[in-house]
Structures
1.
Amino acid sequence: MERQTLIKLIPTLFIVSIAAVFIYNLVSHGRIEHPGKSVYKNQCAQCHGDDGEGIKVLVPPMADADFLKNNFDSIPCWLKNGLNHPIVVNGKTYDQPMYPPGVDEIQIANVMNYMSREFLHSEMQVNSIWVKDRLKVCK
Ligand code: HEC
């Protein structure tokens, strides 16, 4: 690239980086809704609860759930195929089937990122390419 062109690009790069920081701040302070939030509210919360608290002995909690943290990588397969065997979450056994909630790869990635931040207070983040890869190895 010519020196002249590079110099012309500087203001553009400057504006783009300011915009990026601005958008990042809006999202991280919760002023723009996380894209996984609507997936969670519409397709998971009726069972798992708005705050991931679950339903008594029927639906396991997500909030600070050891099982969720330890098996995070398995979530795509559970959402695709459902989950239907006894599991132990925070010391309690749950054994009701979860039928596939009907979410696509992008929704899975978004909802996982939302759950990671909201319920596990974790920095773990995934994307739809990773989800697609995980879906290839579902049993
Ligand atoms: C109709 C009720 C229902 C809906 C809707 C539902 N689940 Fe579940 N979910 C369950 C039940 C019941 C289990 C326990 C399954 C078992 O014991 O085998 C479960 C288990 C899980 C688990 C593993 C246990 C845990 O708490 O860590 C995860 C993760 C999970 N669901 C995520 C989701 C996500 C994400 C959605 C929305 C995209 C969703 N579920 C929608 C009922 C539901």
2.
Amino acid sequence: MDSSSAEGHGSAAASVKANSRERVSRALREGERLSELVRVAGRSLSANALRFARRVETSLGVWRLLAPPLVLHSRRRMYVAYRPDCDVVHHLHPELAVLAESWVKHTPKNSGDLPRLYALAFNIKQIIAEGVPGDFAELGVFRGNSAAVLAHYARQHGRSVFLFDTFEGFAAKDLSRTDANKVRDFAATSVDMAREVAGDSQVVYVKGRFPETVNADTERRQYAVVHLDCDLYEPMIAGLRFFFPRLSPGGLLVIHDYGGAHWDGVKRAVDEFTTGINERLVQLPDKAGTAMLRKSA
Ligand SMILES: C[S@@+](CC[C@H](N)C(=O)[O-])C[C@H]1O[C@@H](n2cnc3c(N)ncnc32)[C@H](O)[C@@H]1O
């Protein structure tokens, strides 16, 4: 080896070293952001999920040096992914910090479903930014976690939000045909519990079995955002029939559990209904397979 190539080798080694130092500090900076996620979600993650997230956090620097970017996953359901840059880097959605707290209140398992929270928030903001007229509604409220997102933006922009639920879980009458194999669920709630999460101002709680709870007021309204999350065929088809004609042009229809394969009645109702209208669904990769559509003008 002549001296010039030895020298060349030396400077190459120095630059590799500098490069890895930069990569290490970059990985540590990323690690800090992950710590923030673990801190926010940590209070509500299960002990196992938290242990996993901490392990990922500690080994993140090393993993990133090996093969960035990695999909960080457990062998089971959870993975650690980026949060949207517009929130964590550019801070365009400061309200998400508060909404994230409501998202997990009394329902800790929601903490892993951040894509769903972001998708709801960003699309509602889009509707507002475009000036789509109308109120908001949700069918299937349970403890008010997703309702809190609708209620936040409704309050901020002078709209009302109508929250339909039995607040006693599935109605026996709906556990028939497609859903005869399902069991009574979501009974562990109440209007007060949902109110604690979604608040009171500009929120109307409509208690009872949908669609029997529809009244002249909810019938005459126009809706800009409708969130259907009622798990079963009967309320889902009734919700689509009631809300779709009342959805404003450009309005947002969010259907939870469409692609998740667990609530087969939801998919059946939605497929049946959408074959008769000139609209197309977009599916999201959140936990239970949310689908959305924006009504044509
Ligand atoms: C999965 S939970 C809703 C969860 C909630 N959207 C969230 O993300 O926080 C489904 C809810 O649908 C409600 N539900 C189902 N069928 C209904 C019906 N026919 N009328 C009113 N509520 C109904 C149940 O009582 C239950 O609270």
3.
Amino acid sequence: MKIFGKIMWALSAFAIFAGAAAAQSGGNFAITKSVIAGGGGTSTGGAFEVNATLGQPLAGGPSAGGNFSLTAGFWSADINRTPFDFDGDRKTDVSIFRPSDGSWWYVRSADSTFRVFSFGLATDSLQPGDWTGDGKTDIAIWRPSTGFWFVQRSEDNTFFSFPFGASTDVPVSGDYDGDGKTDAAVFRPSTATWFISNSGGSGTSIVSFGAASDKPLTADFDGDGKTDIAVFRPSDGSWWYLRSSDGTFRVYRFGVGTDKPVPGDWTGDGKADIAVWRPTTGEWFVQRSEDGSFFSFPFGANGDVPAPGDYDGDGKTDAAVYRGGTWFVSRSTAGTLITNFGAPGDRPVPNAFVP
Ligand SMILES: [Ca+2]
Ligand SMILES: [Ca+2]
Ligand SMILES: [Ca+2]
Ligand SMILES: [Ca+2]
């Protein structure tokens, strides 16, 4: 819509000029070309051309001429990639899944009111994401027994479902094609194969990557707006990922087998950083994507459930743990938040993608 506004502005500017010249028959101005790129990701932009002629009323004599001001704006989709953001304010929402009755509970960070929905079973895998592309996280699950996905639309709380994957697969939903909508995807350990159902219309991707004992991960390590295929190998603490931007892969050693992989954009540069939480000590270790150096800090204790997200919405991942109904969130800009939400036995939703 923004680009449309720009075009309209330009049209009206020319209309005024053409109007002033109308008594002298003036000229016609037309914007003959406009390009709007779609589909997400990086766009190279479009070519705009103004095809117009100005007439001189009398032969000879100086003309003061006119001033042309052409404002070129470039619009790109502003995709909300904040994880676990049910109300769409770009802050992760404190949220839990209650296995005993399949209910989802979340606190809207925008107004601190909460919502409850019944959706799924205790044995389902939590796969929340922005499946519909409206900037709000949708409640979603994958059911191993049938390979069916179920998504509740944030727009109107209706749901849709479809089959993708087999019972022995590991669900790994993410936005692999970068169109702002979550894509269904599974990792098949037996053959170390990824199957990705791209929402943007490019069909199903089938990629061999990793090994049977790897833990599949999803994060955008190269920062191109597309989820990268990635694994953590517990046997040697190695990280392997396939850069969606150029198809090359990277390998790093970071952490030990018992660590919990918690990749995220901890430094705020738009690229996911390799990171782990160590249950035995409660320490977080982050390898900066900028230069490969790392930092660490303690937050939480053994027995806690890690639930990182961007709770203050500054674009940097925040450390967080859930302890039987109590949340401890180390916000990168807003200090530590301690709040009660949930009960023992509940699972924090921001833990959904921590293998
Ligand atoms: Ca929110
Ligand atoms: Ca997608
Ligand atoms: Ca990527
Ligand atoms: Ca943050």
4.
Amino acid sequence: MPDNNHSRTDAAHEAGVVSGPGVYDPVNQARVTINATVNGRQVRRTVPVHYRVIDFVREELKLTGNKEGCGSGECGTCSMFIDGALVKSCLVPVQKIAGRTLETIDDLDRDAGLTVVQQAFHKCGSSQCGYCIPGMVMAATATLRKRPHASIGEIREGLGGNVCRCTGYQKIVDAVALARDVLNGTKPAEALDEEQTESFIGSRTRRLDAPAKVSGAIKYAADMWMPNMLHMQVLRSPHPYARIERIDTTQARALPGVEAILTCDDVPGVDNFGVFIEDQPVMARGVVRYTGEAVAAVVADSPEVAHAAVALIRVTYSLLDGIFDAEAAMRDGMPQLHDFAPGNICKHTKIRKGDVEAGFADADVIVEETYQTSAVEHAYLEPEAGLAYLEPDGCVTVHSPSQNITHHRHMLAKILGRPINKVRMIMSTVGGGFGGKEDMIYQGMLALAAIKTRRPVRYVFTREESFIASAKRHPFLIRYRMGLKRNGRIVATEMKMIADGGAYAMSSPGVMNKSAILGPGPYAIPNVWVDAIAVYTNNTPSGAFRAFGAFQSEFSTESHLDLCAERLGMDPIALRRVNLMQDGAVTHTGQQLDRVLATACLDGAVAAAGWDDGVAYRSGRGEAPRDDLGRAGTREPCVPGVRFSQLIAELPAIHQTARELFAAAQEGDLK
Ligand code: FES
Ligand code: FES
């Protein structure tokens, strides 16, 4: 925890920008001339020596089909061929392609339409957001070039260096297998044709954007480019909680190529925005509340100069004691992160139904447990990016992969102090969002930069920046109490949920509402008490994420039902059957339901899972142990409610192991 009142002046990089022999100079960058054959054409270009092949292709040649997802060799979106060998171009210095042949996704078909592999990806519905697909197509092509009769295992192995965040991979593997069969002649070319259907409902239809995604032609925000375009980089707080005493941009402004530096003083309108609660400044105003919060933005001729100028901004901070525990943040005497939020409570959603204490008094069994979930990063393959510019009529236009574009437009108009018809937002293709692009975190800076410089401005996050600055799934602490009759009927439920909302509200209020409404599950319970509380802390803000809060609360409910089933000695499925809502049920928030399929859904899941037969090697029914997981018994059992009995059985061994480790540590034997 930082020392209170400790004053410190930080530059992003202490070394700043120096030049001289052998030292990187972002203004006068050393350059190298590259001759290469790219997609069958000779090219000769002089580029900065620090360029990687992905930079050469995307920034210099403007071939943007292949993407940069991670910049560190992990995701495979940048996969290309050098002299026919598949490489991750983000790891290869540009000098390595001098005199060699480079193939990118942009012209894989040699102007002949989609390749068989690309057609198969289209046919099989393999592209969702599409951001990984160029890399996948390259890896699939490499696999089939090397092994024309590749087995499914070999196909999977060939795709092993490529990550897809959307598809679950099966449709991608299906596509490669289909391409293999068509190329080998074991399936006719017509197998790639679109299926003709009379109706779209219940039919397999093709996505309209799929051809552009499998060919790499579709443009994401980072692929956009305009003449005279500038580049933005952002200085982010290294501290979780600190007062900003001074921002000195003198050195940064003096760097040749810097066009503008923006701070909160450049916001002309209302410098507080948020989808539910307007609590977030465009850039920190007087105080930073989480590590990674934007403090200033630099706009320059090149990303390198902008980056160097960011390093020259000197910020004097007075460090403050932060709050990192949501439950503790609500206690008396804790620092208050926002004036309008006593007890640091961002949102408290309550559901009260019946008389919960009377319900517990009537219960035969009461089961209590505490559950915790962690923050989760969305990890969409497309890092955040955007392009902003002024129209001739003065309207400012922002392209970005925003998942909540109407809200963002309204917020932006307020920030800029402009009428709504002078602000235009265009949703660029979203390379994966999962809710993470619902909350606005950088579009305000981009629009301000375009207005101030009167030139197009582009901003592309690095993967690290995306991790640091974007909202996460809310971590929850859930205290659960459930009262049941011996026959399994639930008579009372009490859920107290505390969610770490982080420094700003973002989507927390909506997430709390949904977690509370859906938390008790599809069960008919006469007495319900739910509290869902989002709390401000100095952690990274939490926001929208798939299921919008329902995941956390439902996880606890379903886990808790398993524990209750064990306590009652009931089959967990039977317990659910007893309690599921039926036609005519009224939800915990008062909605009458007229067609409830919950039991049918459970029946389907039970059948599909083979629940009644049980898992062979755990069911104790005399079948041979499974050996498809390496060796028998290597897998933890998938038996709901196992935790109590397993732990009780293992406790002596755990204690024994702990005692041995402790003794070894004292003896100094522990390696
Ligand atoms: S592997 Fe190159 S961008 Fe991810
Ligand atoms: S389709 Fe693969 S990351 Fe979205």
